[in-house]
Design brief:
Largest sheet: none
Helix content: over 70%
Strand content: under 5%
Radius of gyration: 25 Å
Structural class: mainly alpha
Low-confidence stretches: 208-226
Shape: elongated
Number of helices: 10
Oligomer: single chain
Order of helices and strands: HHHHHHHHHH
Amino acid sequence: MIPRDDEKVKRIVASNIAHYRKECNLTQDELADMIFYSGKSVSKWERGDGMPDVCVLVALADIFGVTVNDMLAEKHKKAHHAQPQLKRNIITLMSLALVWLIATLVYFFIRIAAPQMERAWLAFIIAIPVMFIVAIVLTSLWHPRILRFLSISGLVWGIALALHLSFRIENMFLIYVIAAVLQLLIVLWYLLVNTNLLSGVKKQKRRPAPQESEKPAEAESVPDEN
């Protein structure tokens, strides 16, 4: 039995996604985060049970450092994922450093314009939550979910520290109790999200088991027809 063209394309795309993902040392979940899909979808594509649309193929090709034609070709090319990811890492670090540069400039001008102001150093404290806000945005776009979780946690404790040091109010240290409760909620949210993803992947892995047992029978029928 000769496979239809669409089935052949599905198998080629499935093989290429799996090949380039492994060559770039990415897990299914990490790749899914980069294109705003679930790891379950990536697993489905790699099994050939479905195929990503053109926009997703373009995004995948960009991540792997290949062309869309390469994603549809039977011969694999060398992936160049390291270069775009390196650029993203550099942009992230530069953005975080820019926050501290601005904080340093603010401190510098305060010390010149108002030398009597003793708490000019608060510019650096306020820079902490600002830095984590920038980190949340960039990790949501380009980086694994664990870094987003750490950035959100850093934002909570950074805000608590900034409020505690900025306002001289009695018992202001209790702000850290609120931060601890929020941290617990963030941890539970992170565990819930990852548990749902893992259970979804396990369900998808169980479903194709009967189909896989049928494939050898189909393969054996091919030489009989010839």
